[in-house]
Amino acid sequence: MTDFRPSRRAALWGAAALAALAALTGAAQAADCPEGFPEKPITFMVGFGAGGGTDAIGRSIAAAIEEQQGWDIVVENRPGASGGVMAAALMEMPPDGYTIGMAGTDTVTVNPYETADSPYTHADFDYLGSAMQINFGLVALEEKPYDTLEEFIEYAREQGRATVSVAGVSQTVAVRQMAEHFDVNLVPVPGKGAADALQQALGGHVDATTQGSQHVQQIKAGNMVQLASLIGKRVPYAPDSKTLIESGMDVSLEAHTTFLVPKGMDAEIKTCLAEAIDEATQSEGYAELMEKFQNRALNLGPEGVEEVVARMAAFYEEALSD
Amino acid sequence: MPELATVLAGLTDAFTLHNLLFVLAGVTIGQIVGAIPGLNILMALAIAIPLTLTLDTLTAVAFLIGVNKGGTVGGAIPAILLNTPGTPESAATALDGHPMAKKGRPLKAMKYGLYYSVFGDISSDIVLITVSVPLAMVALKMGPVEILCLMIFAFTIITGLVGNSMVKGLIAATLGFLLAAIGLEPAQGTPRFTFGMLELYDGLPLSAMAVGFLAVSEIFHQIARSTRAQSGAATVSMRSTDPADRRVTLREVLANKYVALRAFLIGTVIGAIPGLGSATAGFLSYSITKQAAKDPESFGTGDPRGIAASESANSAVVGANLIPLLTLGIPGNIAAALLVSAFIIHGIQPGPLLFEQQGQLIYGLFGAMLMANLCNLGVGQIGMRLWAFVVGAPNTVIYPGALLLCVTGIYFTEGGLFGVIVMLVSAVFGYLMKTFGYSVVAFIIGFVLMAQLERSLLQTMLITDSNLWVVFQHPIAVVLLVLSAVSVLYLGPKRKGAPRAGSEAEVE
Q1: Where are the domains of chain B?
Q2: Which one, of B132, B137, B127, B157, lies nearest residue B480 by Cα?
Q3: Given strand A99-104, what is the order of strands in its sheet?
Q4: Which of A137, A307, B136, B385 is the most buried (most CB within 10 A)?
Q5: Chain B residues within 8 A of A207 when measuring between CB atoms
Q6: Could you give the C-alpha distances from B139 to B49, B144, B146, B157, B477, in angstroms and in order?
Q7: Where is the signal peptide (chain A) (predicted)?
């Protein structure tokens, strides 16, 4: 267990480097903002460590905003408890627009129902938009005797059980729901993060795994096949694998990278920030990052995120109540 | 196999003056950061990654590799000179390195450390370059069942670290187990002993704990021991008239070749298995070496074999950790995970297609790794004289200065005061444990191994449907269990019959 948290200092250095880049390119567009806003640097509080996926997105968006709006943005990492440490800190901040949190939707839709310790719920925040949807898939080793969800379920029925390595509560819930729907014994095996879960599957120690991004390369290399897309639609790198909805289930695993602020923000400032973020998600630099992640920019906008968060929170509140 | 042209093109890309300067800069930064207790190499990597954005891919990766390798060598310096290891892996080096330094041979101890470290590093890099693909396949076969048995084996050998009193050592290790229970429990995610604090959900922060228990407690210990008369003196004296105390001959290095070779093998195997890490390798190697020795009592008194066992093994992990990363796309530890993000920022997706798509770059990276090893040797030679000069300052300067660095370092690393509080509380406990003869090292290694053991046990139960007889279908696991039994039955009594003095550096 070598769980080192990367530093806030790293964040500051990163911000300084990005700020230097932005200064070279100069301001271009401007969102519709109240007079005089912002009068000081804005802080992005990223709920995960420096060097991770969410962190990379945060830094890319921050750089794009600096370039497009000419603002100063400081990226700060507050890792811990799947974004919970950041969300708890953010809740205490004044809703003045100078502190913006960044996390996955799971931070507000899953964490509060997982334990009683969580001081916040999704309703304690306003949402400015989102940047990307995570393409969850159920994947298995290529040499396993199943290529689709139906064949996998049949295999599990014959064997009496099948194991699925997972990383995180939302994936555990998804596996349990599949088991319930098809009435077979699927055993979620919690890994220490997505890489550990992938390793269990690649080594043949479990029968399948749920993954958010690392499976794409394995599919392209022909090592693994996607049994099902766990999100609401099919994915470009495995167009033949059906969604759970197509397989007759009323379930999808929906998670977005989102921007959140403490509740009660002035409407004008909120609109201004939401516009700035929207412009940034359409920037060229961010598109390049998404290409590297084998994904696409997707901003649901303030209302869209609000709707997803409310829906997923209700879903997990019920799923985790027993 | 890759085409020769690709290999040569990659190496040609690497061996340029431009890259050499960046590798040299990386190694220098890494050694300095590694040598300062409280700062750690992961923090240095996280800071460095955004700074490499404007460099070309190979130069950027070469620079980061340099930082990573330099840090591993630098970590031994405070462990040897001040007995204040900043990371769990260098704690094993302190066990023999510091006693040697206190005998008036600090340069000799640092040279041993540097040479064996570079040996382990180069050897594991060669393994990475030549047989990484088959080795990665073997490492993949190490599933939860095998890891569980490996952890059981590790625990049986760790008794070699417990110090003078077996009972006190086991109490210390057990305390480590118990503290590892803090945080979200792996099966259901139920919080244990978190008292409603979200900061404790991911467990006690290891870097703050390690610095507190290992380094700051030693600083407290030294401050408490010092009297007015000696407070102006330095702990480690550089003034030795015998030139043999300052240098290490080739003959002396080769005298421990089998120890170093075994340490490198242990480090490479542990490193190739994702998730285990250099602390496990260093301690495993040190304990095995000590227990296999005819004269285990000489360990802890400044035995070069102790330094060889620890340094070769923890450095071998650095190269081997890239095996699962480059062949499968699985980062073996946090440092490797940070390299992944550097790769991705530069548009390279680590994974099974990496060799095929980016062969030239990978061989360039290998070239940079070899350059970094040589730079390590050179920078280390110059650096050790500088460090030796620094610790020549009076205790009244050195220990308060080190304490200040620990506090600020952890404040930055952990992103706030919480880490500093954990570090200071750990230091007080560590000080009390040392005062009453409980092994701090046994405690911290118990803490490190327990989290892995618990997770592997849980995964094994789930995968085997709680039928532990299934273990017998896993040959590697059976071998490890047999080794554990041998270790307990054979090595236990042998140790009991021969009580030793001063088996651990900090118990004086």
Answers
A1: 4-497
A2: B157
A3: A73-77, A42-46, A99-104, A256-262, A125-133
A4: A137
A5: none
A6: 28, 12, 10, 22, 13
A7: 1-30
Residue A50 contacts B, CB cutoff 8 Å: yes
Task: Give the residue from B365, B367, B341, B380 showing the smallest Cα distance to B75.
Answer: B380
Q: Is the pLDDT of residue B506 over 60?
A: no
| Ranges of residues in chain A whose predicted pLDDT is under 50 | 1-8, 22-28
Option in A52, A204, A288 nearest B341 (CB): A52
Alpha-carbon distances of B350 from A39, A217, A219, B62, rounded to whole Å:
41, 8, 13, 16
pLDDT at B230 over 80: no
Residues of B in contact with A2 (CB under 8 A): 206, 277, 279, 333-334, 448
Tell me the shortest Cα–Cα distance from B396 to chain A, in angstroms: 29
The answer to whether B508 and B221 have CB atoms below 8 angstroms apart is no
Report chain B residues whose CB lies below 8 A from the CB of A82: 201
Determine the distance in angstroms separating the CA of A52 from the nearest CA of chain B, rounded to an integer: 7
DSSP annotation of A283: S
For residue A38, whether the previous peptide bond is cis, meaning omega lies within 30 degrees of 0, is: yes
In one-letter notation, the amino acid at residue B370 is L
Estimate the crossing angle of helix B217-225 against helix B395-414, to 10 degrees.
160
In 3D space, the residue among A12, A14, A25 whose CA is nearest the CA of residue A67 turns out to be A25
Confidence class of residue B159 from pLDDT cuts 50, 70 and 90? low
Task: Give dist(CA B316, CA B319) in Å, integer.
Answer: 6
Indicate if ipTM > 0.95: no
Distances from the Cα of A88 to the Cα of A82, A260, B86, angstroms: 11, 12, 31
- Cβ contacts of residue B315 below 8 Å, gap of 6+? B72, B73, B116, B117, B118, B119, B120, B121, B124, B267, B278
Write down the mean pLDDT value for chain B: 83
Q: How does pLDDT run across B480-494, given as a tens digit for each residue?
A: 899 888 877 776 545
Q: Which domains does chain A have, with CATH numbers?
A: 6-134+255-319 (3.40.190.150), 137-229 (3.40.190.10)
Here the tokens at position B241 are: 């008239």
pLDDT tens-digit series, residues B414-445? 767 888 999 999 999 999 998 898 888 888 88
Tokens of B184: 């979200």
CB A47 within 8 A of CB A79: yes
Alpha helices in B415-508 (DSSP H): 417-435, 440-463, 475-486, 492-497
What are the two backbone dihedrals, phi and then psi, of residue B92, each rounded to the nearest 5 degrees? -70, -30
Distance from CA of B462 to the nearest CA of A (A): 6
Using one digit for the tens of pLDDT, what is the confidence trace for B107-153? 889 999 999 999 999 999 999 888 887 877 778 888 889 889 988 88
CB contact under 8 A, B143 and A200: yes
Q: Is residue B460's pLDDT more than 60?
A: yes
| Nearest CA-CA distance, residue B445 and chain A, Å | 10
pLDDT reported for residue B498: 44
Give ∠ CA B88-B91-B92 in degrees, rounded to 5: 115
Asked whether the beta carbons of residue A85 and residue B201 sit closer than 8 angstroms, the reply is yes
Testing the interface with A: which of B326, B328, B445, B473 to mutate, by most A Cβ within 10 A?
A: B328
Q: What pLDDT, on the 0 to 100 scale, is given for residue B41?
A: 81
B278 → chain A, closest CA residue: A2
pLDDT at B50 over 90: no
pLDDT given for residue A1 in this prediction? 37
Model pLDDT for residues B212-229, shown as the tens digit of each residue = 988 899 889 888 877 665
Percent of chain B having pLDDT more than 90? 22
Contact B463 A189 (CB under 8 A): yes
Q: How do residues B25-38 score in pLDDT, each as one tens digit?
A: 999 999 998 888 77
CB pair distance less than 8 Å for B140 and A202: yes
